[in-house]
Fold:
Amino acid sequence: MSAIALNLHAAPRHYEDNPATRETPWIKWSIVGVSLLFFALFLLLPLATVFVEGLKKGWDAYLAALVEPDALSAVTLTLLAAVIAVPLNLVFGVAAAWAIARFEFRGKQFLITLIDLPFSVSPVIAGLIYVLIFSTHGWFGTWFADHNIKIIFAVPGIVLATIFVTFPFVARELIPLMQAQGKDEEEAAIVLGASGWQTFWHVTLPNIKWGLIYGVVLCNARAMGEFGAVSVVSGHIRGYTNTLPLHIEILYNEYQLSAAFAVASLLAMLALVTLVIKSWVEWQAARAASDDLRPE
Amino acid sequence: MSIKVEGIQKRFGNFVALDDVSLEFPTGELVALLGPSGCGKTTLLRVIAGLESADGGRVLLEGEDASDTHVRERNVGFVFQHYALFRHMTVFDNVAFGLRVKPRKERPSEAVIAKKVKQLLELVQLDWLADRFPSQLSGGQRQRIALARALAVEPRVLLLDEPFGALDAKVRKELRRWLRRLHDEIHVTSIFVTHDQEEALEVADRVVLMNHGRVEQVGTPDEVYDAPKTPFVYGFLGAVNLFHGRVDGNHVSVANHAHPHLSADLPHGEEVVAFARPHELDIVVGDAHSHGIGATVTRILGFGSQARIELQSEHQPGVPDQVEVELPRTRVRELGLVEGSRVRVVPSQLAVFSRPAAGALATGTAS
Structure:
């Protein structure tokens, strides 16, 4: 037994350690080189540029660009849109994934297609649809105008557009996960006398936890970074309907390059934080999955 | 608790899963639902549990119509083929789950729950695993925990869906003996689904044989094995040789040879199928015999006291190409059988049924 264990320990654990499966150095290093070059050229360099350009005029100018009232209002609006859109899509995503993964019903395929719609429709068109429906000249515009509710070129329109474009993230993440897990555990809970809510809270939710967090992180990144749809419904009213990406565009168009990059660095940092959380969640989920797959 | 199902119907699209199934499961018995995959046995079990609703018919639990009772109020214990343990909970929490989700006024205190869980884990002989997670257990251990979890709520009936289906042969055998002993200890009315005839015959008090959504036969393991009522049951339980022939008075004629048969009331001239288990066939050698079916020995497999002899028969209408005979090894030596021997096969008895419609026979004759 111990001999076998020793052998296993000594056995190569990667293809790389085993001469029989190793590539020649020439092939290996050219593949690694090409990948690294691409990575540096198209990802690392632009990212570095954002920070370098942002800091070109020094720390004071950088900070001034960030605390300027218009920038602050853009940050607030971006956060507001995300704070509303992400929880709504979280609830919707879980409900939709539950329905699709657990039940058979008419129109299920249609529902899946609908959930994917925001991925396949250009965000600009999504924005235009909202303008068509809610603007003063739109279908319901007169009704809203009569009741003194402003949607287009106002905060509600931005929130609506954000919800639309971030709609699929949570549901898309959960559907395959829940389908793979099956409904045995939930059925077991119900047979044992658990109510629907107890089953969801004690059985379903813990099982989809990592997938859910992953979906929320992606959803949040997109909610804060969305440009196209929001741009159409916003009307670009400074200090009122500008989100961070829109604010950056205005600064850029006014040749305030340094300020534009300074604000852009905020979004870049958000992206970095998102990546870190995403990697951590993936690592956790992989650990949980490898626990499940441990041989019997 | 007694369970009764009456006229259960269930379809999935065009597929008829259960076709007018009526059965009774008396209190305290361990009953096996046995049949090939797709015969509706699991669907029937899920209908009884309430996890599936029937299109027609009634489920009576202790004489009461349960058709409108929600799963969680039926008080059944259900054991799944793939265990369905809650993967993020420890073994202890898994077993305690059914007690902890009870409405506040029925819920026992944590101290009582802990005591009860400990008892159940001792019952399944795994009390030393209480703090482990399901992923740290072997398949057999997981299924025993699943059983303890099901028993925690003191179910009136225990339903097991292919409980040993995902386990390897050795663990299966151990666990089914263990299940039998456990049932003798706790005596809760139990139904378990299996496609393994050996398992059903070995464990159950009674066996229900199902095919194509219908019940073929119900009886004790001895009854169904010794006196199969339908060709399907004959073919499904153990190895058989299948002949085609015609009734000729009190004999059945297969390939121009008359053989005595068991069934009394078949009309003269009826086209029939006739079954013989390998031990119900004899082998004779020498030219003195003209009856029986000519065949050549292709293989002799000797295990223990019995030898299994595979023969290639002479091509005749109604006779299968391959015939399997079981003889005591002493008899094989007496006859001097070797591979290539030319012999005649004589049925000592044949079980005869009117020729059924195609597809009603169990697939594969000698298995």
About this structure: Chain A touches chain B at residues 182, 184-185, 187-195, 198, 202-203, 206-207, 291-294, 296 (CB under 8 Å). The longest helix of chain A spans residues 257-292. Confidence is low (pLDDT under 50) at residues 1-10 of chain A. Chain A has 14 helices and no strands.
